[in-house]
Design a protein that fits this description.
With 209 residues, this protein is α+β, with helices and mostly antiparallel strands. 43% of the residues lie in helices and 18% in strands. The chain has a 5-stranded mixed beta sheet. The mean pLDDT is 90.
Length: 209
Protein backbone atom coordinates (compact mmCIF):
# COMPACT_ATOMS: atom_id res chain seq x y z
CA UNK A 1 0.00 0.00 0.00
CA UNK A 2 1.24 3.47 -0.84
CA UNK A 3 1.26 5.63 2.28
CA UNK A 4 -1.08 8.61 2.07
CA UNK A 5 0.72 11.96 2.43
CA UNK A 6 -0.69 14.85 4.49
CA UNK A 7 -3.75 16.42 2.89
CA UNK A 8 -3.47 19.48 0.69
CA UNK A 9 -6.12 22.24 0.68
CA UNK A 10 -9.38 21.17 -0.96
CA UNK A 11 -9.43 21.49 -4.74
CA UNK A 12 -12.17 23.10 -6.80
CA UNK A 13 -14.41 20.74 -8.77
CA UNK A 14 -12.67 21.61 -12.05
CA UNK A 15 -9.22 21.11 -10.57
CA UNK A 16 -10.22 17.80 -9.00
CA UNK A 17 -11.60 16.51 -12.31
CA UNK A 18 -8.42 17.44 -14.17
CA UNK A 19 -6.26 15.87 -11.45
CA UNK A 20 -8.19 12.59 -11.53
CA UNK A 21 -8.09 12.31 -15.33
CA UNK A 22 -4.42 13.26 -15.40
CA UNK A 23 -3.70 10.56 -12.83
CA UNK A 24 -5.38 7.95 -15.02
CA UNK A 25 -3.29 9.02 -18.01
CA UNK A 26 -0.10 8.89 -15.96
CA UNK A 27 -0.73 5.43 -14.52
CA UNK A 28 -2.47 3.71 -17.42
CA UNK A 29 -0.77 5.38 -20.40
CA UNK A 30 2.62 6.33 -18.98
CA UNK A 31 2.30 10.07 -19.60
CA UNK A 32 4.41 12.61 -17.75
CA UNK A 33 2.68 15.06 -15.44
CA UNK A 34 2.72 18.19 -17.61
CA UNK A 35 1.50 16.33 -20.68
CA UNK A 36 -1.16 14.48 -18.69
CA UNK A 37 -2.55 17.69 -17.18
CA UNK A 38 -2.82 19.33 -20.59
CA UNK A 39 -4.45 16.25 -22.11
CA UNK A 40 -6.85 15.92 -19.17
CA UNK A 41 -7.93 19.54 -19.50
CA UNK A 42 -8.58 19.04 -23.22
CA UNK A 43 -10.48 15.79 -22.65
CA UNK A 44 -12.71 17.49 -20.10
CA UNK A 45 -13.42 20.39 -22.43
CA UNK A 46 -11.30 22.86 -20.51
CA UNK A 47 -8.82 23.60 -23.28
CA UNK A 48 -7.51 27.09 -22.83
CA UNK A 49 -9.24 27.29 -19.46
CA UNK A 50 -8.10 29.21 -16.44
CA UNK A 51 -4.64 28.36 -15.17
CA UNK A 52 -6.15 28.49 -11.69
CA UNK A 53 -8.03 25.28 -12.53
CA UNK A 54 -4.83 23.34 -13.25
CA UNK A 55 -3.83 21.10 -10.34
CA UNK A 56 -0.36 21.14 -8.85
CA UNK A 57 1.91 18.14 -9.27
CA UNK A 58 1.31 17.26 -5.62
CA UNK A 59 -2.47 17.25 -6.19
CA UNK A 60 -2.09 15.04 -9.23
CA UNK A 61 0.23 12.75 -7.32
CA UNK A 62 -2.45 12.28 -4.64
CA UNK A 63 -4.82 11.13 -7.38
CA UNK A 64 -2.12 8.87 -8.84
CA UNK A 65 -1.76 7.17 -5.46
CA UNK A 66 -5.52 6.77 -5.18
CA UNK A 67 -5.77 5.33 -8.71
CA UNK A 68 -2.98 2.85 -8.00
CA UNK A 69 -4.58 1.79 -4.73
CA UNK A 70 -7.88 1.18 -6.48
CA UNK A 71 -6.72 -0.55 -9.67
CA UNK A 72 -3.10 -1.70 -9.23
CA UNK A 73 -2.63 -2.40 -5.54
CA UNK A 74 -1.29 -5.92 -6.09
CA UNK A 75 1.06 -5.32 -9.02
CA UNK A 76 2.42 -1.83 -8.36
CA UNK A 77 4.67 -2.59 -5.36
CA UNK A 78 6.39 -5.36 -7.33
CA UNK A 79 6.89 -3.12 -10.36
CA UNK A 80 8.15 -0.25 -8.20
CA UNK A 81 10.69 -2.49 -6.51
CA UNK A 82 11.96 -3.76 -9.86
CA UNK A 83 12.35 -0.24 -11.24
CA UNK A 84 14.12 0.97 -8.11
CA UNK A 85 16.60 -1.90 -8.29
CA UNK A 86 17.31 -1.08 -11.93
CA UNK A 87 17.75 2.58 -10.99
CA UNK A 88 20.15 1.54 -8.23
CA UNK A 89 22.36 -0.33 -10.69
CA UNK A 90 22.48 2.65 -13.04
CA UNK A 91 23.20 5.10 -10.25
CA UNK A 92 26.15 2.93 -9.30
CA UNK A 93 27.35 3.00 -12.92
CA UNK A 94 27.31 6.81 -13.00
CA UNK A 95 28.32 7.37 -9.38
CA UNK A 96 31.08 9.83 -10.38
CA UNK A 97 28.44 12.32 -11.54
CA UNK A 98 26.52 12.71 -8.26
CA UNK A 99 23.35 10.90 -9.39
CA UNK A 100 19.99 11.73 -7.84
CA UNK A 101 16.90 9.69 -8.60
CA UNK A 102 13.70 11.65 -9.28
CA UNK A 103 10.26 11.13 -10.74
CA UNK A 104 7.77 8.41 -9.90
CA UNK A 105 10.45 5.82 -9.15
CA UNK A 106 11.78 7.97 -6.31
CA UNK A 107 8.36 9.20 -5.16
CA UNK A 108 6.95 5.68 -4.98
CA UNK A 109 4.22 5.92 -7.62
CA UNK A 110 5.97 4.17 -10.52
CA UNK A 111 4.45 1.32 -12.51
CA UNK A 112 5.78 -0.72 -15.40
CA UNK A 113 4.88 2.16 -17.73
CA UNK A 114 7.12 4.60 -15.89
CA UNK A 115 10.52 5.77 -17.08
CA UNK A 116 13.47 6.24 -14.74
CA UNK A 117 14.81 9.77 -14.28
CA UNK A 118 18.29 10.28 -12.85
CA UNK A 119 19.77 13.76 -12.49
CA UNK A 120 23.55 14.03 -12.92
CA UNK A 121 25.34 17.06 -11.45
CA UNK A 122 28.52 17.58 -13.44
CA UNK A 123 31.46 19.98 -13.45
CA UNK A 124 31.73 19.36 -17.21
CA UNK A 125 28.41 18.70 -19.01
CA UNK A 126 30.17 16.56 -21.63
CA UNK A 127 31.80 14.27 -19.07
CA UNK A 128 28.74 12.06 -18.69
CA UNK A 129 28.50 11.56 -22.45
CA UNK A 130 32.17 10.63 -22.62
CA UNK A 131 31.70 8.17 -19.75
CA UNK A 132 28.88 6.37 -21.55
CA UNK A 133 30.84 6.28 -24.80
CA UNK A 134 33.86 4.83 -23.02
CA UNK A 135 31.63 2.17 -21.51
CA UNK A 136 30.25 1.26 -24.94
CA UNK A 137 26.73 2.28 -23.92
CA UNK A 138 24.41 3.43 -26.71
CA UNK A 139 22.31 6.46 -25.91
CA UNK A 140 20.14 9.07 -27.55
CA UNK A 141 20.98 12.70 -26.90
CA UNK A 142 18.20 15.23 -26.71
CA UNK A 143 17.43 18.55 -25.02
CA UNK A 144 14.94 18.97 -22.23
CA UNK A 145 13.54 22.46 -21.97
CA UNK A 146 13.75 23.74 -18.39
CA UNK A 147 12.91 27.30 -19.21
CA UNK A 148 13.27 29.73 -22.06
CA UNK A 149 17.02 30.11 -21.57
CA UNK A 150 17.85 27.01 -19.56
CA UNK A 151 17.85 23.80 -21.64
CA UNK A 152 19.64 20.74 -20.29
CA UNK A 153 20.90 17.66 -22.09
CA UNK A 154 19.18 14.30 -21.60
CA UNK A 155 21.01 11.05 -22.31
CA UNK A 156 18.43 8.31 -22.83
CA UNK A 157 19.32 4.64 -22.65
CA UNK A 158 17.19 1.52 -22.78
CA UNK A 159 17.71 -1.23 -20.22
CA UNK A 160 16.02 -4.53 -19.55
CA UNK A 161 14.24 -4.62 -16.20
CA UNK A 162 14.27 -8.19 -14.96
CA UNK A 163 11.53 -7.76 -12.38
CA UNK A 164 8.93 -6.84 -14.99
CA UNK A 165 10.66 -8.45 -18.01
CA UNK A 166 10.43 -5.29 -20.11
CA UNK A 167 12.77 -2.66 -21.49
CA UNK A 168 12.64 0.62 -19.62
CA UNK A 169 13.78 4.08 -20.69
CA UNK A 170 16.36 5.63 -18.39
CA UNK A 171 16.77 9.38 -18.77
CA UNK A 172 20.07 10.73 -17.47
CA UNK A 173 19.52 14.48 -17.12
CA UNK A 174 22.81 16.37 -17.19
CA UNK A 175 22.77 19.39 -14.90
CA UNK A 176 25.33 21.90 -13.71
CA UNK A 177 26.92 21.15 -10.36
CA UNK A 178 25.71 24.51 -9.03
CA UNK A 179 22.11 23.36 -9.51
CA UNK A 180 22.40 20.67 -6.85
CA UNK A 181 21.50 22.83 -3.86
CA UNK A 182 18.25 24.05 -5.42
CA UNK A 183 17.37 20.54 -6.54
CA UNK A 184 17.13 19.36 -2.96
CA UNK A 185 14.36 21.76 -1.99
CA UNK A 186 11.31 19.84 -0.72
CA UNK A 187 7.77 19.89 -2.02
CA UNK A 188 4.83 21.62 -0.30
CA UNK A 189 4.69 18.86 2.31
CA UNK A 190 8.39 18.78 3.04
CA UNK A 191 9.04 15.57 1.07
CA UNK A 192 12.04 15.38 -1.26
CA UNK A 193 11.60 15.47 -5.03
CA UNK A 194 14.74 13.37 -5.52
CA UNK A 195 17.25 11.34 -3.58
CA UNK A 196 20.80 10.04 -3.80
CA UNK A 197 21.96 6.44 -3.94
CA UNK A 198 22.05 6.08 -0.16
CA UNK A 199 18.48 7.37 0.04
CA UNK A 200 17.32 4.89 -2.60
CA UNK A 201 19.03 2.04 -0.78
CA UNK A 202 17.19 3.01 2.41
CA UNK A 203 13.88 2.88 0.54
CA UNK A 204 14.70 -0.58 -0.79
CA UNK A 205 15.67 -1.80 2.67
CA UNK A 206 12.50 -0.39 4.25
CA UNK A 207 10.33 -2.00 1.58
CA UNK A 208 12.03 -5.35 2.13
CA UNK A 209 11.80 -5.26 5.91
Amino acid sequence: MIAAPPALPMMSTATAEIAAEAARLIVDEGMEYAQAKRKAAQTLGRRGGRSADMPSNEEVEDEVRAHIELFHANSQPIELDALRRLAQRWMQRVADFRPYLGGAVWRGTATRRSAIYIDLYCDDPKSAEIHLLNQGIDFDLGPQQQGVDDPVSVLTVGAHCEGINEFVSIHLIVRDLDDLRGALKPDARGASWRGDLAGLQRLLSEAGA
